[in-house]
Amino acid sequence: MGFDEPSKTRLDLGLGISSTSTADAAHVNAHRFWKISEPSLTLSLCGGTENQIHAAKTVDFDDLNRVFEDRETDDLFRQDSTGASSLSNLSVKREREHRSSEDEVGVQRAYRGEDERKKLRLNKIQSSRLEESFKRHTTLNPKQKQELARELKLRPRQVEVWFQNRRARTKLKQTELDCELLRKCCDRLTDENRRLHMELKELKALKSAQPLYMQLPAATLTMCPSCERIHGHGRGGGVAETSAKGSFTISFKPALV
DNA sequence: ACCGGCTTCCGCGTTACCTCA
DNA sequence: GATGAGGTAACGCGGAAGCCG
Predict the structure, then answer these.
(1) CA A117, CA A113: separation in Å to the nearest integer?
(2) Residue pLDDT, tens place only, A84-127
(3) CA–C1' distance A84–C17 (Å)?
(4) How far apart are CA A223 and CA A243, in angstroms?
(5) How many angstroms separate the CA of A206 from the C1' of C14?
(6) A242 CA to B8 C1', in Å?
(7) A141 burial via Cβ count (<10 Å: 0-12, 13-18, 19+)
(8) CB distance A154 to A65 below 8 Å
(9) Which residue intervals make up region (Disordered) (predicted)?
């Protein structure tokens, strides 16, 4: 299971979330997880309908190929066989700028009307395969990315973006769950607090209405058979003595250290 | 050992498109 | 058919980390 395995979100009462990096031999940069420490509330995001694999009935590879050919553009050629970028960061930025300037002059408008750059909707097979892969590992190393892209006839960039968005969705869902849990926790504590306040109030009322010996725990009270006095030994060495007939005296002796 | 540039990857915020009620 | 909401693919940006000269 991809996201419930590494993404254990810390959930202390202050919502202190710390991001930690974990080195992975295959992909050092890829594992930044939300770590949890005690006390923790581990939530399982797996299961449920979201991750249920869509039942794949038939595969129209011709359709897939058509889609692939339509989208086989810049990003595909940005990747060499090892998945390393062949364009420098500067080039990417320049390209971004170029694209945005193109958009300004109406190119974006143009492709919106054409099938070529219409937003791709991944089919069920692709989605389920990606989900399946995500369950195994929430990040991909370049090789995995390439293989998955080849298998699904997508550009590596698309696979990468899908994983990024998927992680974001997972995190969002986890945050929502955490919020819900915290809210419930807060409600519980509020109730408990209210109950304790009531209890305290009752005890105070009881205390002001009761004689002193009644306020002491029963185990600390002893009745003197000869004088019919009750002896209560307080914590600080103080002794409360109450006559069974009503009158009482309190005496303190220094506590032995 | 330290530094700066380059590259890659990621998270985050946002946009644009699609689907559905 | 029009519309608004929700889902999600894609983008842009900045930061972190590794590598290299």
Answers:
(1) 9
(2) 333 334 434 434 344 333 333 333 333 333 334 456 788 889 99
(3) 16
(4) 9
(5) 64
(6) 83
(7) middle
(8) no
(9) 88-107
